[in-house]
């Protein structure tokens, strides 16, 4: 499988997880350069990858 196909498969498999994360971040707006919840949420998700 090509690298491009692996990336496309990863996106397809995980897109709903990232959509859900974007909704959670949108529900909790934070001031610029003080995005504690947003950064923690994304870091936690990426560590599980």
TrEMBL record:
UniProt keywords, alphabetically: Hydrolase
MF term (GO), any: hydrolase activity
Name of the featured protein: HmrA protein involved in methicillin resistance / amidohydrolase of M40 family
Taxonomic lineage of the native organism: Bacteria, Bacillati, Bacillota, Bacilli, Bacillales
Name of the gene: hmrA_2
């Amino acid at each position: 499988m090509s690298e491009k196909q692996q990336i496309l498969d990863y996106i397809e498999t995980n897109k709903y997880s990232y959509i859900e994360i974007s909704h959670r971040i949108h529900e909790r707006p934070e001031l610029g350069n003080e995005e504690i919840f947003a950064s923690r949420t994304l870091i936690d998700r990426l560590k599980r990858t």
